[in-house]
Request: fold
Amino acid sequence: MDGWQAFGVLAIPVLAGWSVLRVWLRSGGPRLTDRLAAGFWCSAGLAVGWSTGPGWLVPVSWVLIGLTLLTHLTGLVELFASRYVGPARGVDPEEFRLRLLAVCQEEATQGLVIGVGPDGGLVVWGLEAAGVGRDRNILTWGCPFCFLEDLVRELVPEADGPVQAYRALLARQANQLFVLRRGVIDLRWQAELRQVQGLKKPFANRCGTHRHGG
Reply:
């Protein structure tokens, strides 16, 4: 094998790996051209490995093909994860907002965690004693991210910083939870962000403010 042939053999897995990386990491989800490029270079690796090239190209190509196919299972994984939280139910945004505000105005309510799940459902932890379970609350209309930000702004006097940080992280495909707590001295609500454990890609949304790829 001369120098040019060796270069070609090494270039194939590099190009295949780069194509697979683009399938996984492209903001807004992979394009058709990304999948076609990954399929082409992985197939080229198999063909060369089975013919005149080194044998290690075959297992490497199969691994890259498997990684590409895994991206098609993301939707099923997200569906399974969302079902683990609780059953989905449709809620009117205004009624749900008023209910949450009423519960949070009670002195017994000291804190909660709230966020938007991978299916767009709003999930609340910490209000079970007040009758708000861990259901996936699907808004009958409107953007769940806007709903969450507006709720935080209504409760938290100094919400601008956490809300802006929330938007910035969503834009980087890193979903977050809001942790809301009452202050120890003045009992005013405070907000901080907590990284989602598990699936971190936010719900694919298309409102004017929050446009996240699926």
Q: What stands out?
A: The mean pLDDT is 81. The first strand starts at residue 88 and ends at 91. The chain is about 50% helix and 15% strand.
